[in-house]
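hey so u asked for the seq, here:
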Amino acid sequence: MTVDLRSDTVTKPTPGMLEAMWSAKVGDDVFGEDETVNALEEKAAAMFGMEAAIYCPSGTMTNQIAIKCFTQPLDELIADQTAHVYRYEGGGIAFNSGVSTRLLNGYRGILTAEMIAPEINAENIHYPHTSLVVLENTVNKGGGSCYTLEHIKPIAGLCKARGLKLHLDGARIFNALAHTGDKAVDYGTYFDGISVCLSKGLGAPVGSVLLADKATIKYARRIRKVLGGGMRQAGFLAAAGIYALDHHVERLKIDHQHAQIVAIELAKQSWVTDVLPVETNIILFDTVEPANVVLSRLEAKGIKAASTDTHRIRFVTHLDIHPEQVEYVVKSL
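ran it, structure tokens below
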């Protein structure tokens, strides 16, 4: 048996999703004529209480477009030191936007208004202009840790009071919502931009959407074009996103349950020194031996995983992990 726990990006379209893709009505999206892309954008924006949306090939692109829209060269953004926009987007903050980054050390990637406030630069020609705060929910490097809206409200209030934009890297926002019970539609009250990935836990093969007000999305279309992200008959892919939003949101709790089962068993193993608290579908655990040694041993049993540090391994549960595979992993540890 093979169990692929490397990421929730490895999922394949379900039969229902494939049927939706093949039957999609398409047009040229760069001309704004793809009915299915338009429908996805309208649906996603409405779900989060935002005015408009733009469909892009990846979450990296939606994040980088947002940063470009909300900053100017010589500005500075604030993010946690684990943030995907900083660690895993190829240096795009500097390359695409000419912006510096102020990194903070949140608890498992979670920032607070009290942490952010003293890091906002005063108006001084020696300092970059602080213009943006970026949050990530869930936090990948925090082991799927979650912000609640109660955490977010004071940060949004601070940003509004100090004239900063607030962007959410919501690559796994639906996992966070499944855990916290917060409502997606309430998020639009607090954020200037929200990136939502469709190709992780939701199981679509491609794509993310950036949500914002109409003026921001109008400018975002120009930046998407510059970055080479304008697609043509993209409705075949957008149809998968619509199907995912309609059919794969509620089931995320199953992935969370699977992660809890595996985490409990990991905590019993003598070769594991620590398991981070599991809130959603990501398990981070530390090992006695180097991670590459443990990964080789796991792969010999058909279990694929990835390391995030020299002695830390990540498991991610997802749509294509079934109960019998969870049972196999538990027995194989």
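The chain has a mean pLDDT of 97. The radius of gyration is 20 Å.
lmk if thats what u needed
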